[in-house]
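Hi, here's the filled form for the chain we discussed.

Project: internal
Contact: R.S.
Residues: 382
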Amino acid sequence: MKPRHSAKIQSWLAAPLAKDVADAIRMLADVDDIVQIAVMPDVHLAKEVCVGLAIGARTRIYPAAVGSDIGCGMAAIRCMASEMPLGDEHSAANLLAGLYRRVPPLKQRRESVPASLPECLLQAQLSHPRLEKMKLRDGRVQLGTLGRGNHFLEFQRDDEGRTWLMVHSGSRGMGQAISAHHSALAIREAWTQGPSSFDADSPLGRAYLADAAWAERYASENRLAIVAAVAELLSDLFAVELDRGSLIHANHNHVRFETHGNYGLWVHRKGALSARIGEPGVIPGSMGTASFHTSGRGLAESLCSSSHGAGRALSRSDALHTIGERQLMSEMRGVWFNERQAGKLRDEAPSAYKDIFAVMRAQRELTKIVLRLQPVLSYKGV
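And the returned structure, exactly as it came back:
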């Protein structure tokens, strides 16, 4: 679908926008400080600022335009075995059981808690003593954990038969705490237009940017810790190694100062992937559907961005009301997963998400497909 142009808004859509989404985007466009909004084909409603937007602002920082899971993103890495032994139920069950032990959803088992955080996370001090205390406590026990909701770990096969690991996770409770802390401070600011915000060059703005940068690093270290845990598991179970040189690693919830054209902007991406020319990316579909490795095309009109996934077609509550266990089982045919948790995974069913192929067609100007992958085994925390 061709982009729709207005003074500030440009869109790459797989289907017409829902009225509540369109209204929310128009409200953002009314903010004087916001000069450019790029709407991705996976856009869907969220609190204050929709998921699936890239927003360029002149001087202000909008925490809601980054979201609560600061630094959430994707890692993908290839398995070096010519063929992973996942064709039988016994192997798949052993792998799933190992994942539950070594990549827990919420916090590490007592014997697995790291002695300390990585040095890159210890060096920077967070802006409030409460956040610093949480970093040393919750930050340790959550490092290397997956999370719930749409976070996942999958084994996938590309069109050439190679097996890949894909991880979707973020900054866990730390990102949420940092976002909540600064959002509360922003509400007290005198600026009245649009979502709560800071002047980027104010003490509050600089504090948010520093804490958000830390949360990005934490999210990155979290995904790398998950990859390391899975590498040990694959070695123990199947004597399979991961190809470290194949790693693709990027996040889709951040704010960065970038130059676009002849001027600098604070570019906020909430559920949007940076897609500069040749920049590698990972765009997942949904539990049970295709995912893609990509290369950015650097389109200026999109703030050099692309979608971060398929995007929800149904809210979680609507999905739970309309999708039954039998439907989920049918949609997941051919993919190993924990069927005992089917009742709790209905809001993550493929039909709760948009058609990933329609999403990819809608953003052909934004990013190029490098690899297509199909899921073989899917692990989600519940």
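Let me know if anything looks off before we file it.
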